[in-house]
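Hi L.,

You mentioned the student needs an example of a multi-chain input paired with its predicted structure. This one should do, with 887 residues in total across all chains.
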Amino acid sequence: MSEPILVPIEMDQSWRYAATAAMARFCEGLKECRIEALRCEGCGRRYLPPRPVCGNCHLLLRDWVPVRDEGRLAAWTVVHVPILDARSGRTREAPYGMGLIRLDGADTTLNHYVAEHDPSRLAIGLRVRAVWRERLEGAIDDILHFEVLR
Amino acid sequence: MTLGSLRRPVFVCGLGETGVVAEDPRSIAEMVLQAVQAAYADAGCTHADVDAVVSASIDLLDGLTASNIAVTEVVDAVMKPETRISADGLAAALHAAAQIAAGSYDTVLVVAHAKASMADYEALTRWALDPIHLQPLGVDFLACAGLQARMLAEDDTGAARRWAEIAATRRREGSSAFSGQCSADEILASPLVAAPLRAGMCAPLGDAACAVVLSVQGRRTPVRLAGLGWDLEAHSLGDRDLSRWDGLARAFGRACGAAGIGTGVPVFDLAEPSCLYPHEEELFRKATGFGGETLISPEGGLFPGTAPVVAGLSRLAAAARRMREGGAKRALAHGAWGPAGQGQAVAVLEAQP
Amino acid sequence: MNPVAVIGTGQTRHARARDDASQPELVREAAARALDDAGIRPRDIDAVVIANMELFEGRAWPELWVGEAAFAAGKPCLKVATGGTSGTSGCIAGFHQVASGLFDIVLVVGFEKHSEGHTQTGMTLTDPYWDRAVASGAVGNFALSVSQYMAERGVTELQAAQVAVKARRNATRNPHAHLQMPAITVEEVLASRPLAHPLRLLDMCPQSDGACAIVVASGDKARKLNPRPAWVKATATRHEQPYIGDIDRRLITMRTLRDAAREAYASAGIREPLKELDVAEIYEPVSYAELAWYEALGFCAEGEAGRLIEDGVTEMDGELPVNPSGGVLSTNPVGASGVIRVAEAALQIHGRGGDRQVEGARTALATGYGVYAWADVIVLADRP
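Structure written out for the whole complex:
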């Protein structure tokens, strides 16, 4: 039997994604370090990210509420696989912390980096606060990571 | 009950569309939300009446894995059954009809969306072609259409003129700002895009979303989805007889069988085919046998503008709309996907007394 | 749903890289075996459903290229794609198509060739405006949910390691399974490379190349072709909100799986799953997930999942063997994994389980998992 032939093909494509009106407003707010959620008039849940409809109540979301840039860890982990930080072009060296953060004023949690990579120093319930980058572009990674408030 | 028929009736109850534009500035979620809300309003129902959702979208076009995740909330599929058929939207409607006939659900929402404007659509179609023999050559769907058109035009000197006239007629009937109007001469003077196809012979691709509510209960609609059929031809163009759309002929035969339509040429007053190019309309007529007694694409078909994936579902909507107005008793809606129409789907619609 | 049954199954040899076969050849390998198992010929197939997460291989409309390998040329063929649940969705689509009255026999083939893809395309399972910049990938996402699950339900790393060992030991009796680790121990799992705390390499499912096919038939045909058809008693599907942050306490609540199971059990007349199910093939992407699924599926009360694995209740000689095949933890070609669950559940009822046969299996459960919390639940039994 002959050797299998491998045909290499490279994909070089780009896509232009349109944000929802809610996400666009949210992203604008980030340029001023402002975080807002949308509150469902049915169940009262305050959604991050903001989106057109509450999937549970089937209601359009219209009620904007302010959210602080600090909150509590609802979940955490320490990741051992290095990842490229697209903004800086540098690698985020492993290990690095990640968490689900329930910001004060929101009911859903935000998946983001946590500046702590020792598992013995991470726990559910710890208070964390956003550390913002110097240059804000209106994207969720305007927040560099969350620092643990001790 | 003959083999191949739907065990329960399926009715087309609600229709909703954004319409096609060259570039919709909104997100896919908001476009789909508009179409879904319009379909509910048209059906006189709410999300609570819908048992399941069938989505049609293509991950590569949306640049999103499991692309229906972007619309789950706006199609009211949270804590509901949802599935995704990744082919033309008409195929999704046929699958929804099968679900209803199976007795699993009574009312199913079918949704299709795509935004040709968000990426290089034709370049993306290369990723559907055999990556060993075809893709490295840079073959895309347009090139395949060109190859099929070339085969048809080979001994047919009048083909180009005829196609230009078909395209001009369809644009005139559709009179959309998106596609514009031009004469057959202007079309014949337009640049070649995949010889012998010229720019003016191609239905323009844009952005759209479409939603249809199908149900076992007729509600207030006179349109029944009486028969359905779909087919997949061989992939390599060299394995197919490109002078015909055999897959469509088979799908059509299955659909007529499912609808219990007898032998001989069944009489359809109306057909809404998904033809991106005029030569495809001739292939459609050949495969179905439709002649002068069938009104084909009275509103211009895809020529006023179309979006991938949405095309076939929008044909179903167009046919159903006309039938409600008393414009036809029996219609065929058609969708196609893949190189030179490798995949084909049809639905037989019948007006209820 | 009108009565339909699974009458045959087939799968490939699953492996990290099947360099000896193209994607269509993988599909053909599984499809041909399923036809043999069902005792039918290609012309007996009325329609085909393909399940595959095409973006993982960077493709679009993959059924166009691989359809012929699934004997679909000249036949009705559609492709289903719903993330990890693609396989179970595809099987359910096949059930619907046969039950509809349109077809007597439908072939469902799920496949994935991860070795021909790029992990980057998996990263596009995120909203480009939200989590694409901050996503930690599947491992990180699970690890986050696991931290909550451990804190609230008290499961331990040791219990999770026991799940990981059970899976790979079961896989040694499955000639198709990708990972073959006959000497695996909990110590080895606990010492394996950390990926995202507390998940270690051996807590995670592999990425595999492979395909799996089932043959679905209508009532009369099923009886003619298989002496013990695996009848579809119930199917249920639930989708969820789109962001991981929406699904708080995901493993703890898993409302989609819980509710789908409730509906499926009700349809199948099952009140005590641990007693009434003879075997279960559940979709467990990580070891901890299996524990969470024990609770969501009602095999035990909340907080008891650890006890279930410790007491050997879900081992091959336990009251309810879970994943005799080795599960997703041993074999994971994403588009096929859901079909494998259904196929493995069906072949238990067929009595064709070989070394992994659960004696006298009459009622089987198969589940699918995908995206963050999409769920499918299917109940098969030896009577309609």
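You could point out the following to them. Residues 21-148 of chain A form one domain. Residues 53 and 60 of chain A are 5 Å apart (CA to CA).

Best wishes,
N.
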